[in-house]
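quick one, 276 residues, struct below
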Amino acid sequence: MDEHKKMIEESFEIYARVWKAMPHIIRPTKSEVGIYERILRKIKKDGMKVLILGATPEFRDLTTKLGIETTIVDVNPVMIKSMNLLMSQKPAKEKVIIGDWLSFKTGEKYDVVLSDCSINMLPWPRFEDLVRKVAGVLKDDGYWLGRVCITPKGFNFPSWDESWKFIRKYPNDPWEAINCMLATVRDKDWLMPVPKVLERLKQDFDAGKMTEEEYNKLKIPNPKMSITYPSEEEFDKVFSKYFTLMSKELGSEFFSCRWGPVYFGKVSPVLKSSSA
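---
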């Protein structure tokens, strides 16, 4: 194997290891995968076609298990190949589109679009663009089934010191504290910059405010990431423009699952015509 190819293969493995280390808010939990599977089984029909935003291995294992024809769309071919390493079986009915979620081209219409916090990678002003795009690639009776990170309804924004101390209340659920810390540095468009949180966290650790164990639990795996958590009310307004909400469910393993409900909605045909 030449050195360049070896380097590429090693990079795939690095991506895979990073994914395995990702906290549950970024990866779906077992109970959240269970929600997806239960709903997919309920609406499954002959010839069903599913589109996945991203290369989430849990989704691809699920559609392979259910024998559903699947297309994945992601802008990063390296990420797709790295996620392949985490799948439990090779997909038999999978197509790949390399492209941006907002602008990819496809000549097909799908029965279901699956996503897991994909939309949260976008700035808030582009959320509706993706909701509209999803509606546009669905059949007239199609569904969107996806987890969305939101700021929970009725959330009382804590101070910085109150936020990180949630690690003491939920020692096995660091993402509750992390989400609260992110909420304290949000901007007017709900963008939550991770670098700001990590910088302030390091200052508090150096000042002796928290233990090394607490600090290590609160360090976010991707230090350059920024993520958008709109209010639940604001996202629901956008979602309801294009979809009829069928259900909104939470995973059961962690208190912090409240930040990522799984939305299940049926496309609204009247509004869909303006989204194609």
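The chain is about 40% helix and 20% strand.
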